[in-house]
Amino acid sequence: MTRKAWTRSAMGVGIVLGTLVATPVVWANASSSIWSPTVIEANGQVVSHVEYIVAVDPFSHEKTSWLPIWYLETALSKLGVQSTWNGRVWTMATPSSWRADVKNTIDKMPTASEMELVIDGKEVEIAPKLVAKDPWGHSETTYAPVYYVMEAVQAAGGEVAWNGEQLSLNAPNPTSSSNQSKSYTVSQMRFSSESAAVADIQKLEASYWGGTSQNPPVSIAPGVKAQFKGGAGQSAYEWNEGDWTFIVKLYSAPSTTQDTLKSIVMDIQDSALADVRTRGLVVITQNDESTNIFNVHAVWQKGTSVWQLNEKGVLLTVLRNIQQISP
Q1: Which pLDDT belongs to residue 71?
Q2: SS3 category, 223
């Protein structure tokens, strides 16, 4: 997962002389809509109803969502993860059945406005933190950005999804093999207006597709025509299904391209993603021409928020995941 603003959920805090600060006074203005309700689930069961903060991540300088660590620890304990928080270090110990993929990557001490994430004895990440009064417990507590929480849970071997209103934590499926395990992240970004959110998706679409194709539309499946670009063993196609735009990039031989495109269109239609009442963009890139595995980058907009998902896997499964978590 990269450190770009797109991959971060929306974050925000005040910075004074380089130090991240958050006080009850700073967040007391309810009219600014800084506090928002959310639900934390563990293995499909509701664990907590909490309020999260939308504030600026001092690392990415973009807004993101911050959740209170105490409630996150409670949810993780339902999955068998033992965790402790001492105000500076958040330590997690995973069950033996989990397949943690962690290594020491920390080469500095966290500052007063940062925290260290340790998983199974490995120092894996430095993340920002802020302290504010919990509206439910009425006491000062520490909040962590959703982006880093998701990274930590995934590194520990668990599964996690965030749609801006609900954080779902799940233990890994014990019947899944290591090459079949689900690995994806969902992040949210908020904008000042709906038009700004739409413009951000349009900008991302332009970065993937580039300028207008000079080629005439081509038929890629019964009733479906797409814009086409290609050359040097590569081909790209763009078309719309409902309010969703699909861009497909293939590296397969020309003799198999048409069959691959028909299969992709069928998967899109079977997933019913185009029926979801949000506007979105899905970029599907062939991962290996000898398999049906694809890299999928999806972004979708509702109101002033934009969500993003990156996932690698069987296309229909990935598309159905997007359909299920789209707000």
Answers
A1: 93
A2: coil
Closest CA to 4 of 313, 299, 287: 299
Residue 158 neighbours by CB under 8 Å, 6+ apart: 79, 81, 94, 98, 169, 170, 171, 172
Angle between helical axes of 315-325 and 254-271 (0-180°, round to 10): 30
Q: Residue 146: enclosing H or E segment and its boundaries? A: helix 146-156
Q: How many CA atoms lie within 13 A of 295 on its CB side?
A: 8
The answer to whether residues 230 and 32 touch, using CB atoms and an 8 Å cutoff, is: no
- Rounded to two decimals, what is the model's pTM? 0.47
**Structure confidence at residue 128 (pLDDT):** 93
CA distance 33 to 24: 14
150: helix, strand or coil: helix
Minimal CA–CA distance to 69: which of 129, 11, 125? Answer: 129
Question: Looking at the DSSP assignment, which residues form a beta bridge with residue 224?
Answer: 221
Second-level CATH architecture of 194-325: 2-Layer Sandwich (3.30)
Residue 95 vs residues 106, 123, 124, 170, 172: alpha-carbon distances, Å:
23, 18, 18, 13, 11
Can you give the pLDDT at residue 31? 31
pLDDT band at 56 (very low <50, low <70, confident <90, very high): confident
Helix (H) or strand (E) holding 261: helix 254-271
CATH 3.30.565 region(s) of the chain? Answer: 194-325
Stretch (H or E) spanning 21: strand 19-21
Structural tokens at position 193: 């207006």
Which residues neighbour 15 within 8 Å (Cβ) at sequence distance 6 or greater? 21, 58
Biggest CA-to-CA distance, the chain? 65
CB under 8 Å to 164, separation ≥6 — which residues?
38, 65, 188, 305, 307, 327
Cβ atoms of 71 and 50 within 8 Å: the answer is yes
Q: What is the pLDDT of residue 247?
A: 93
pLDDT, one tens digit per residue, over 120-134 is 888 888 899 999 887
